[in-house]
Amino acid sequence: MEKVIHPANSRGTANHGWLKANHSFSFANFFDPSKVQFGLLRVLNDDYVKAGMGFGTHPHKNMEIISIPLKGEIRHKDSMDHTAVIEAGEVQVMSAGTGVEHSEFNSSQDELNMLQIWIFPEKDGLEPRYDQKDFSELMQPNQLINVVSPKSDQSKDSLYINQQAYLHLGDFQAGRKIDYNLKSESNGVYVFLIEGDAEVEGTILKKRDAVGIWNTSSLSLEFKNPSKVLLIEVPMN
């Protein structure tokens, strides 16, 4: 088993007034040669957006993009003629493929907090696509919920992307222990603690800390306090 630890205070930060951004990996003006990506996971941004503000129309290409609002709602509009609102409890996926333009704004009266994840696709030049799903009724205490899967292994409840990657979300009570079994031993898992306190294979995580683990078939997690966690399993090459 190998691991890399990313404390919350080691993330890149940017304060644009309307946007406060935290970058787990090199992004925009933040560059750390040791934090370019974890396997095929390229971006994990933890953004806070003021009410009525957001990202104007901009392009993406050949990237699988997952957005998870933690608080508030995102108003999305894209060049595929999709207009939607994504609220906390929902997950959005967008395959940029050959190219897509979109905008994202905070349409609520309060600050929006959202996670945005970019994963490299299995191949370039795919047809762009969009989807979203409300997982709030599926979220059960002390369980990991599979919210994103590969198209080839999509569960009946999960969204899919064009990569052999799996995203799980879970809310856990203090004292709970779980084991996570990787789908492939060539994959790794990036564990991002959204809230709480946890121990992952001997590494203590606090709010917004992360640990990437690979060269293993499973890993164990123990939650010391009520916690919310995101697991991102991706191919390592």
From TrEMBL:
Residues 10-119 form the Pirin N-terminal domain. Residues 147-234 form the Quercetin 2,3-dioxygenase C-terminal cupin domain. It comes from the Bacteria. GO terms for molecular function: metal ion binding. Binds 1 Fe cation per subunit. Fe cation binds at residues 58, 60, 102, 104. InterPro entries: Pirin, Pirin_N_dom, Quercetinase_C, RmlC-like_jellyroll, RmlC_Cupin_sf. The keyword Iron applies. The keyword Metal-binding applies. Belongs to the pirin family. This is Pirin family protein. It comes from Christiangramia sediminis.
